[in-house]
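Running this now, will post back.
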Amino acid sequence: MSKDRHGGTKRHIRVDYVKEDMIKAFCFTAKASRVFRIDRIMAIQEVKRYA
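Update: finished.
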């Protein structure tokens, strides 16, 4: 969950890389690559996928 002007948005993402205060990830919610500011992330949860 991350903060936005509406209070918060829950997104499912795949992290591509972390650089300083940003995370570049593919957002399954938006179906596109996005950059997220780490200071705006309110909560995270790891999801393990099994082959």
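The beta strands are 13-19, 22-27, 32-37. More later if anyone needs it.
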